[in-house]
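FAQ

Q: What does a record look like?
A: Structure on top, sequence underneath. For example:
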């Protein structure tokens, strides 16, 4: 099964993809936050399930940003006709930035990739929970 993870942002959405039989997520794209374009991308890539990162507050409470992500996930579920799950994404962007700092020397290059790497970390967590 092909699964995509989305790291939702106000302007951009980072995307990672994994084939569950392999269990290895990889950063795939950074798309504009345009639901129709995201749905087309998911269909083109033959995605069968979507995981969307929900940015809970450090103490576990759902802030107003989580409500925005929940609304996005529901709209995506309806438009793409796919199962869409929310997964706690606390600290994934910070971890993605740390990993990219270790490997990328140019800040502009890191900035272009951080959302997709954060999505890959989210998908890695999801796959671990599935036991893959």
């Amino acid at each position: 099964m092909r699964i995509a993870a989305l790291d939702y942002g106000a302007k951009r959405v980072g995307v990672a993809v994994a084939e569950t039989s392999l269990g290895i997520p990889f950063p795939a794209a950074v798309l504009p936050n345009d639901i129709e374009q995201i749905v087309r991308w998911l269909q083109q890539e033959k995605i069968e399930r979507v995981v969307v990162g929900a940015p809970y507050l450090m103490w576990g409470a759902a802030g107003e940003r989580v409500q925005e992500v929940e609304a996005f996930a529901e709209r995506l579920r309806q438009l793409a006709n796919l199962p869409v799950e929310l997964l706690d994404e606390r600290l994934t962007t910070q971890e993605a930035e740390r990993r990219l700092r270790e490997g990328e020397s140019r800040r502009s290059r890191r900035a272009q990739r951080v959302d997709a790497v954060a999505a890959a970390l989210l998908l890695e967590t999801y796959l671990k929970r599935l036991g893959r």
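Q: Is there anything notable about this one?
A: The helical segments are 35-44, 64-80, 92-103, 107-130.
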